[in-house]
Amino acid sequence: MRTVRAETLKLRRSTAWVVVLLLPVAVAFMACLNTLTSGEPLEDGWHTLWVRVAGFHALFPLALGVALLASLMWRPEHKGGNWNALMGGPTTSGSIVWAKTVTLWLLTLTMQAVLLVLVVAVGRLAFGLDGFLPGQYLVATVVSGIGVLPLVALQSALSLFVRSFAGPVAIALVGAGASVVAQQMAGDLALLSPYSVATRTLHLSSGVFGDAGTLAPGIVTLLVGASLAWLLVINTVGARVLDGRDVRV
Amino acid sequence: MSSIVATTDLTKRYGSTTVVDGLDLAVPEGSVYGFLGPNGSGKSTTMKMLLSLVQPTSGEVLLMERPMNRATRRGLLAHVGSLIEAPPGYGHLTGRENLRLAQRLLGLSERQVDQAVRTVRLQDHLDKKVRNYSLGMKQRLGIALALAREPRLLILDEPTNGLDPAGIEEIRELMRRLASRGTTIMVSSHLLGEIDKTATFLGILSQGRLIFQGSRADLFQAATPDVVLRCSDPPAAHRLLAARVPSTLTGQELHLAGLGDHHVAACVDTLVSHRIGVFDVRRREQSLEDVFRDLTAGGRL
């Protein structure tokens, strides 16, 4: 807990907040623009809007956002003498890995919350939809809070071990793209990719990209289980590898 | 005096290159241990092995009489402050925020942080972002971060690198103050003059090997200074002695290298028995710099 509180202090004046705010805004803006220019109205009201904003967000912008946040979060650690100080201090490798994962997770949750608020705002204000976002999508958003964990842990690990800023971001884009294709071809076997889990949870109950259109307890349990398993595996391996590695000479 | 740092046959090889070769270091508790050597002699790598930042190829490190390795390091590092290569610090945060971060992370008290800040005299610059700090200020912040946990051992790798003379003097003064409070300091430098007056103990590294370790007095003793001799007939004296000892004739003076006290007496005896009057026999004054240069140039003692 102490390490997480220390990590959150590092986020002061961090560029990460720009990503947290601007990425969902860009996604929502593009969805609006698409709807307006294509001339296709929101046939099914909130459902169509959700698919166009959150459904699109899940395909690759989410992975891009998490990758950017991870690289921004790890960048200061790779600068100057910070890496030597980090590895030359009493904080265990496990604590370092978990604190970074939790911090990145909190940033990601904030980004997702911004997106949720934007979907509702766009629906009510831009498209004059009545009522509120259907409850099933709120559930999907909550489940996606768990579903992003594999993505969060993986990107944090990549930005920990790869000093370059852009490298892990590129990996995220390729991984997310490949996972969308895998989902189309292999269905839920694609959950063997950490990128698929996050995408899949945001598509829950939307009826697109292979989703059945209902919130079946079976798939929700599978997603939560896969998320926690991925999280545990990635962070355990990450901490082990970090502990065995030498600093650069 | 017990050793707070002790290594046995500490070695690091990268491929076929041996960077650190069989070091047996012993840093006495409470000392200021000057770790000297030219650039590239393996000082940084050694310090990284002491901190377990780099794993040795062979050999062992004992910190506070306990083995230092990947299983034990985090526990031992709670008592060790270090500054390796560039000073740490998050540029987008102020000095105060950087310190608060360390405070939260290590569960330190306000008093500990305050004291560390006052020790490095950084209290007037805490609200500035670290990216706007001068190198000297960054260095002091780095030391404050290392000091805040009140370590028993402080490992500083070239802390005066890139500092102006005032900054260098400040770091020296800081080391003296810390040492007087009982903190053991191991400090590396490629310039003898920088730590000469501060260090109570010296270790000299050359091409990865420890060529000397001991007190300053030991060092002078180990490297025997030349004997300078004046007499009534220098050329004749030179002819007489050159067969037995390395002798050079410089003007009216004879320089005899590497002579122990008994050899000096024997040489004087020879000259007197050949009826050459000996006016004056003395040891050449030698600075620590000369000794250091002789040792590192020769590669061995």
From TrEMBL, chain A:
Keywords: Membrane, Transmembrane, Transmembrane helix. It comes from the Bacteria. The chain crosses the membrane at residues 16-37, 49-74, 104-127, 133-153, 165-186, 215-238. It holds the Pfam family ABC2_membrane_4. This is ABC-2 type transport system permease protein. It comes from Propioniferax innocua.
UniProtKB/TrEMBL annotation, chain B:
InterPro entries: AAA+_ATPase, ABC_transporter-like_ATP-bd, ABC_transporter-like_CS, P-loop_NTPase. The keyword Cell wall biogenesis/degradation does not apply. GO terms for molecular function: ATP binding; ATP hydrolysis activity. Pfam families: ABC_tran. The keyword tRNA processing does not apply. Gene3D superfamilies: P-loop containing nucleotide triphosphate hydrolases. Residues 5-232 form the ABC transporter domain. Keywords: ATP-binding, Nucleotide-binding, Transport. Belongs to the ABC transporter superfamily. This is ABC-2 type transport system ATP-binding protein.
